[in-house]
Design a protein that fits this description.
CATH class of the largest domain: Alpha Beta
Order of helices and strands: EHEEEHEHEHEHHHHHHHHEH
Shape: globular
Oligomer: single chain
Strand content: 5-15%
Number of helices: 13
Largest sheet: 8 strands, mixed
Structural class: alpha/beta
Number of strands: 8
Helix content: 40-55%
Strand order of the largest sheet: 2-3-5-4-6-7-1-8
Radius of gyration: 23 Å
CATH superfamily of the largest domain: Alpha/Beta hydrolase fold, catalytic domain
């Protein structure tokens, strides 16, 4: 008698602010910088540790296979025969073919790169458990989109439901390509929105994937979720990450001051002090201005220590240093530091420019897809406040196989990055818990074939 496999979804919630939402232009710029920094970190990690790979090439490691395969544009309408080419990567160098598992890395709201199967927590685990590594780029992001995909008519086929159906089709494609059997247990990995997809894929297709690791996954979507500021506030006052009550109070005070100035309508001082590219024109520009400044705070909390110049500790050192002047003057300095780090001559606070950017249907096969993600969040999830995702995740164990790991004092999806010497003990312990749980899942899969 075959026993049903346990519902194996590992849900990780991080106590620093976790956010992948919309935000102002500053947050998008910061997110792109973090992605570049993570790729550089992966490169360094590979250069330092390539000797651990069993198969070597002249460059230190074998380049993974990049491929494209045709996916139905609409999985739910048989009358629509249109397709698009979806990009994927495969790394077979660590795989024990007969019984080695398959580790699927799920892409999200941006382009994937070969490093999706070369570096990261899931790759380290694949080395230990001799897994086949595969990654799938999300439809409509990166190179996985038709030239007309961003038009108002065609973008309707961008949804998490279509993406989950893509994963099921990809499962069949890879299984056929590599002659996989039931002995090759599938475990999927994802962080943030892809973390939700990871959990949902396990729930919707339990016959295809045995277990899922869902890092910082907002699986409980909520319309007009407003708990963001509470989590940011808690992070700014958390001494574990360099915050303090004084820091939180200074930030709250200065944004209250900004509100008063904007209500008065005399914005020339703000435009000069905070490097606005042009005069603020009405309430829409006011909203962009405040959002861009708030992005500096929110982005620092979200990506704490993800780049060398970006941490809550550094932010709070500035905001609590009275020798720098008033809280307003400290925020001015914080903004100048941000502009310097991003190499910005001025900050674009034009709401009209934002709209024009979001209306553009030009397909760019790199970076984060702003138009796509804006459409997807508004059409499906209701993430209108840049929410810290752990508040929408699962933070307590649901069963012996549904394990929640809460990591204090770190950042968004930090457990998924390659390990570093500066990683806090809580992060190292969390990775070990994930490792242990995967070992339990794989042992269970072999003991009770699914």
């Amino acid at each position: 008698m075959l026993l049903s496999p346990p519902l194996a979804v590992l849900l990780l919630g991080l106590q620093s602010a976790l956010c992948l939402g919309l935000g102002g232009q500053n947050l998008w710029l910061l997110k792109d910088k973090v992605l570049r920094s993570q790729e550089q970190r992966a490169q360094r990690y590979l250069l330092e540790s390539w000797k651990a790979f069993p198969a070597r090439s002249k460059g230190g490691w074998t380049e993974p296979r990049e491929g494209f395969f045709p996916q139905p544009l609409d999985h739910f309408n048989r009358r629509n025969n249109a397709t698009y080419k979806q990009r994927f990567w495969v790394n077979t160098e660590l795989w024990e073919r007969e019984q080695g598992p398959v580790f699927l890395y799920i892409g999200g709201e941006g382009a994937l790169t070969p490093y999706s199967v070369l570096a990261g927590e899931h790759v380290d685990l694949a080395r230990k458990y001799r897994a086949l590594l595969v990654s799938l780029e999300h439809r409509y992001y990166g190179a996985s989109i038709n030239p007309d995909g961003l038009t108002d008519q065609k973008i309707q086929f961008l949804s998490s439901q279509q993406a989950l159906a893509d994963l099921a089709t990809f499962h069949a494609f890879i299984s056929q390509q590599y002659n996989l059997t039931r002995s090759n247990t599938w475990i999927c990995f994802g962080g943030s929105y892809p973390g939700s997809l990871s959990a949902w894929f396990r729930l919707k297709f339990p016959h295809l994937v045995y277990a899922a690791v869902a890092s910082s996954a907002p699986v409980r979507a909520q319309l007009d979720f407003t708990a963001y500021n509470k989590v940011v506030s808690q992070s700014l006052s958390n001494p574990i990450v360099g915050g303090s009550l004084k820091c939180r109070a200074a930030v709250a005070h200065v944004f209250s001051r900004l509100d008063q100035i904007l209500k008065g309508g005399n914005t020339s001082g703000l435009e000069a002090d905070f490097g606005s590219c042009r005069k603020l024109n009405g309430s829409d520009d006011y909203g962009e201005f405040v959002s861009n400044l708030a992005d500096i705070i929110m982005g620092t909390v979200q990506y704490n220590q993800e780049t060398p110049d970006n941490s809550i500790a550094n932010l709070c050192q500035v905001m609590t240093n009275h020798s720098l002047g008033s809280a307003y003057q400290r925020l001015v300095l914080l903004n100048k530091n941000y502009m310097a780090s991003m190499e910005l001559k001025c900050v674009d606070n034009s709401h009209q420019n934002v709209l024009e950017k979001l209306r553009s249907t030009e397909v760019k096969p790199y970076g984060v897809g702003e138009r796509q993600w804006y459409y997807q969040t508004c059409a499906e999830f209701g993430y209108c406040n840049i929410d810290p995702w752990h508040a929408l995740s699962v933070l307590k164990n649901q069963s012996s196989s549904e394990v929640a790991v809460v990591i204090n004092g770190t950042a968004h999806c930090a457990n998924m990055n390659p390990p570093e010497d500066r990683d806090p003990p809580s992060l190292r312990q969390a990775r070990q818990k994930i490792d242990d749980q995967i070992g339990i899942w794989l042992a269970s899969a072999h003991q009770y074939p699914w």
